[in-house]
Design a protein that fits this description.
CATH topology: Metallo-beta-lactamase, Chain A
Structural class: alpha/beta
CATH superfamily: Ribonuclease Z/Hydroxyacylglutathione hydrolase-like
Strand order of the largest sheet: 1-2-3-4-5-6-7
Number of helices: 8
CATH class: Alpha Beta
Shape: globular
Number of strands: 14
Helix content: 25-40%
Number of domains: 1
Largest sheet: 7 strands, mixed
Order of helices and strands: HEEEEHEHHEHHEEEEEEEHEH
């Protein structure tokens, strides 16, 4: 095969470099400055500004993944100033003791669940079904991360100067102290496990891990009153357009 003058022939090795899959990256940018991080058994979020705020810490062993993402963003672990936990289930708080050994960040969780983190007792079993709770208990005891430090007891309505303003919204039901994080200036809402987003559909939180489904539905009704374009979950991809409209449509489908 001949090639026009001035056109360089591309070798198969170079062609493969173009076609091969992009290497796995542990994070995606949801909004400028807001990153979803793939941690063990869950997702965490990083808010990268002058300082870094970490939202949830994944299951035990996730601390290094969070720090890896910080480094890939060209930042230092020393830039982590705050850690916010949406609720005290193992897949959200399990990496906290590990992360606190490496960074001196201030840590906050809703006051209703702070005692679970600060106690030497194992974290509460997340299963609501008695048989599943009993079967899982030995494993949960084995992987329990141990106590961690809580510096700030969060309450509904608390506000912090993060990403243009971050407001704590108490959203009980999945757990008594579940919170959502609302960023009105950026039109974003992080809901933790207050909702699911499966197969393109919004759903109530998983029944096997939710303590009060009626209360969880009431919390979603309250979240539906907010205005936001982007909705972020702990186990699913975000909704990045017209998210509040979709939540309101979902709320209309809930039983009264």
């Amino acid at each position: 095969m001949t090639h026009p003058a001035g056109v360089r022939r591309v070798s198969w090795q170079e062609r493969w470099q173009d076609l091969r899959p992009v290497p796995f990256r542990p994070f995606v940018e949801v909004l400028p400055g807001l990153y979803q991080v793939r941690t063990r058994a869950s997702r965490s979020y990083l808010i990268a500004e002058d300082r870094i705020t970490v939202i949830d810490t994944g299951a035990p062993g996730s601390g290094e993944r969070i720090l890896e993402t910080v480094r890939e963003l060209g930042r230092s672990p020393d830039d982590i100033a705050d850690i916010v936990i949406t609720h005290s289930h193992l897949d959200h708080v399990g990496g906290l003791p590990e992360l606190q050994r490496w960074v001196p960040a201030r840590t906050g969780i809703h006051l209703a669940e702070a005692h679970h983190i600060e106690s030497d007792d194992p974290l509460p079993n997340p299963f609501t079904h008695p048989l599943l709770a009993r079967i899982s208990e030995p494993y949960l005891q084995w992987v329990d991360p141990g106590r961690a430090r809580i510096d700030v007891y969060l309450r509904d309505g608390d506000e912090f100067p993060v990403l243009g303003g971050m407001r704590i919204v108490h959203a009980p039901g999945h757990t008594p102290g579940s919170i959502a994080l609302y960023f009105p200036q950026r039109g974003a809402l992080i809901v933790g496990d207050a909702m699911q987003y499966r197969f393109g559909r919004l759903m109530l939180p998983h029944r096997l891990f939710t303590q009060d489904m009626a209360q969880a539905a009431d919390s979603i009704r309250r979240l539906a009153e907010l205005e936001f374009d982007t909705l972020c979950f702990s186990h699913f991809r975000p909704i990045v357009r017209d998210a509040d409209r979709r939540v309101r449509e979902f709320v209309r489908s809930l039983p009264a």
